[in-house]
Amino acid sequence: MPVLLDRVAIITGAGSGIGRAIAERFAQAGVRVAVNYSRSREAAEEVAAGIRASGGTALPVQADVSVESETVAMVRTVEQQWGRLDVVVNNAGWSTRIPHEKLEDLTDEIWDRTLNVNLRDTFYTAHAAAPLLRRQAGSSIVNIASTAAFTGFGSSIVYAASKAGVVSLTKSLARALAPAIRVNAVAPGFVRTRFANWPQSAFDQGEAVTPLARLATVEEVANTAFFLAFEGTAITGETIIVDGGLAQLRGVR
């Protein structure tokens, strides 16, 4: 039963994977969802159409959130459409797999794109949304980090560094925006999505060494994001790991 019919959320990178699951989870509770995309228009429109078909409210909104002017325009579009904003989920991300020992393959282009899409966009969106979020009691920001922030593992060294930056930025923003806006993060481990084009064998190997003997699902990540956005009202500056226990229980944190 929808319980949050008056709330509005922006989910960046919501056309697939974790972002899609978060948009759908929020919509199930009655939240009006802005489904952000950069290039994947058809995927975002499919997500929005599915939400509307299930009785929810969704609007695809194009913006490259690594570009500040586009991020500001996205927030303005949401304000014009619904007149308010309660939650921002910074989910948009990018990576390409580079073995960690191949330092020479980390080009300036890869550094710039990874940091711009994974870290700079998180700040841009928080900055653009903060004035609108402050108008609503109980507003919050949820950043999608990664266990790579703690382990140093992941698709590349720069990806792990960018997500460590997201964890640090989450703490800084939580201080800067308190008490009006709570800021938290979710750090998924290996999740079966198309992100970074991991082969099936990599997921199977990850599952084999995970204490719960399975990987977390996109739905479980989405449920954690929902909790931090709407229910964890005494929590700010926190990062919750969702990875089946691998980072904590195998001593790699």
The strand count comes to 7
What is the H-and-E element order? EHEHEHEHEHHEHHEH
Strands ordered across the widest β-sheet: 3-2-1-4-5-6-7
Distance between the termini: 38 Å
Specify the overall morphology.
globular
Going by CATH, what is the homologous superfamily? NAD(P)-binding Rossmann-like Domain
Classify the beta-strand content into a percent band.
5-15%
Mean pLDDT: 91
The CATH topology label is: Rossmann fold
Uncertain segments are none
Counting helices, strands and paired strands, the structural category is alpha/beta
- Report the CATH C-level class: Alpha Beta
| Count of domain modules | 1
CATH architecture label name: 3-Layer(aba) Sandwich
Q: Helix coverage percent of residues?
A: 40-55%
Based on CA atoms alone, the radius of gyration comes out at: 17 Å
- Count helical runs: 9
Largest sheet: 7 strands, parallel
What would the keywords be for this entry?
Rossmann fold; 9 helices; 253 residues; seven-stranded parallel sheet; globular; alpha/beta
Question: If you had to describe this structure to a student in words, what would you say it looks like?
Answer:
- There is one protein chain.
- The chain has nine helices and seven strands.
- The protein has helices at about 15-30, 40-55, 70-80, 110-135, 150, 155-175, 200-210, 220-230, 245-250, and strands at about 10, 30-35, 60, 85-90, 140-145, 180-190, 240.
- The mean pLDDT is about 90.
